[in-house]
Amino acid sequence: MSEFNIEKWVTLKEVQAYLGVGRETVLAWIAKRNMPAYKVGRLWKFKLSEVDDWIRSDGAADDRTDEKLEEESE
């Protein structure tokens, strides 16, 4: 019988700790930037391998407009 390496699902809090960001940031990434996340009942679940792939594909890149950057520099 062969063994399967099955990746476990992680929680929103675990993803926050893994990425070093806050809850609202993760929720905004899910809503606005297609972060890979799955709703199970009322809970969000994640596969860290998918989150890593999403990060590497610039999913979390700062996409603020030049106008916003100008406002911050004033």
Q: What does the model show?
A:
- With 74 residues, the protein is an alpha+beta fold.
- It has one domain.
- It is 49% helix and 12% strand.
- It has 4 helices and 3 strands.
- It has helices spanning 12-19, 23-33, 48-56, 66-73, and strands at 10-11, 38-40, 43-46.
- Strands 1-3-2 form a 3-stranded antiparallel β-sheet.
- Strand 2 (38-40) and strand 3 (43-46) form a beta hairpin.
- It is globular, with a radius of gyration of 16 Å.
- The termini are far apart.
- The model is unreliable at 65-74 (pLDDT under 50).
Strand order within the widest sheet?
A: 1-3-2
Tally of helical segments: 4
Give the overall silhouette.
globular
Average pLDDT over all residues: 85
Largest sheet: 3 strands, antiparallel
Ends: how far apart? 65 Å
- Spans of 5+ residues with little confidence (pLDDT < 50)? 65-74
Radius of gyration over C-alpha positions, nearest whole angstrom = 16 Å
Q: What is the SS-derived class?
A: alpha+beta
Q: Please give the number of β-strands.
A: 3
**SSE order, one letter for each helix or strand:** EHHEEHH
> Approximately how much helix is present in the residues?
40-55%
Estimated share of beta-strand residues: 5-15%
